[in-house]
Amino acid sequence: MKIVVVGGGTSGLLSALALEKKGHDVVVLEKDKVGGLCRSEYIDGYTVDIGIHAITMLNDGPLIRLLKKYSRYLPNFRPYGDYYIRTDKLYNIPVSMQEWTTTPVVPNKDKILITTKIIDLMTSGFSKETSVYDIIKDMNLSKTSIDFFNTICYFLSGEDAKKTPLWRLFTGAGYIPEDDILPFIYKDLKINPLKTVLFKKFSRNKIMDILNAGFLSSIKSGSKKYINKFINKNRYWTQGYPLGGVQSICNCILYSLTKTDIRNEEVKRIIETSSETNSNSNDNSNNNSNNNNNHKNGYIVETDKNSYYADIVIYSAPSRYLPDIAQIPEIQKNKKDFKNIKFTKSLTVWIGHEENPFPYMGSEVWIDYPCWATCTSNYDKSLAPNGKHLLGFSFTNTKKEEVLNIIENKLGLNLNKADMIHFQEAIPEQASCAVNQFFVYPKVKDNFYVVGTDADPRSMGITRAAYSVEVMLSELDNTFNKNNKNK
Ligand SMILES: Cc1cc2nc3c(=O)[nH]c(=O)nc-3n(C[C@H](O)[C@H](O)[C@H](O)COP(=O)(O)OP(=O)(O)OC[C@H]3O[C@@H](n4cnc5c(N)ncnc54)[C@H](O)[C@@H]3O)c2cc1C
């Protein structure tokens, strides 16, 4: 089959890798830099990633599963370390009930209120639309505790407590398994029970039972299990940071691709081929493109330079642009949902310095001015010149001067002595896990798929992108099997 992959970030490249190994003829069209956000830049002797990264679920998550199956080798991940919170000093972020009741981060009065509320919510259930703020607003919590929740929400969902659903806080903290929430995420899942490839371990009837019983009763029925997780949660993280920076994940995929054709072109339009479009289409192809007017039931993918025929399209660019690009009824029907996908911008500052205010493995969050910070050269010294450290700070605020002042004041770090300062503005995930967010299901139709962080709500960034690729591959296999049976 001829497959065109739109976008060459993690999700596009992983899709290309798997599909190439399955014997397809794959072209990747990337408008900018191959790797997308999973890249590192070389700035004044430092190797800086696009945003600061922790790679999740390295024990047995979708990224590792896909790489083990299709790539030539695995990137070398260093264990991540721990997560801290900086107030007057550095403290562990509380995860278990015992840590919640003893943490110095929030006032004593709040600790009791928060722990009893968590157990109460898991027992009595809550609705899918309940936000974190809906719960904390009437608890009379201190400003520190509210700031704490806002910050944790930003980093789990991309939104503050008002826009973050409570389920995201509980799944992100590891108290509620993501699979328990998943049946309720995709808007049209109930309408089309065929879309159950996500839930291979459950029967279709079980999924329909869960959906019919509703979100509230599903949470209630899992409450014992969830409370147990809250009480016993340990600080063992299955996370890591790749030696060489996140570019090494991208390189691992690129070195494993042997036949895929990767081109630097921007996709402008995707149209379905029919006898009408075939006879009317202008053949503006050059020798490199694979446009062929004899094809049927596929797509013409038009770029700024060429046009390509595809039996199957895998779209990995932001889905909110899809209605403008793809003249396909299944997409136009949900145009409003696609265009309303919410996302958040972040500002990352990389600083090269001879001082290292983070002499530990892991990262820290600040709650009075939400920030996530780490030192990547703690994992790999080669990311910074000799005797220097590479410090990364990701903010939800995008005012450059302001964030530099905050860093200086918070850490007592003299930025006049900085060896390098580099700013990046980016969108970490194409869909924030917000209340009522629309997620695109990876299978739009038999020969059109969407992958990326707006096509799966599970986990974070790169792992989330990989989850969507796994779903796409299973759906594609199902379609091939179905078509083979019908032959
Ligand atoms: C500040 C920050 C912190 C982060 N922290 C983490 C973290 O801790 N852990 C983690 O796992 N992830 C993290 N991420 C996110 C992670 O890197 C991304 O979510 C992931 O790499 C996204 O991969 P993707 O393929 O879905 O999207 P992208 O990497 O965005 O790839 C999409 C590609 O499509 C291309 N494209 C768009 N339109 C077109 C078009 N019309 N034609 C052709 N090409 C097109 C784009 O140029 C882009 O290269 C972070 C990101 C940032 C910015």
UniProtKB/TrEMBL annotation:
| Segments forming a coiled coil | none
| Family matches, as InterPro entries | FAD/NAD-bd_sf
UniProt region (Disordered), positions on chain: 273-297
Gene3D superfamilies assigned to the protein according to its UniProt record, in alphabetical order? FAD/NAD(P)-binding domain (3.50.50.60)
Bias regions of kind Low complexity — which residues? 278-294
Protein name listed in UniProt: Amine oxidase
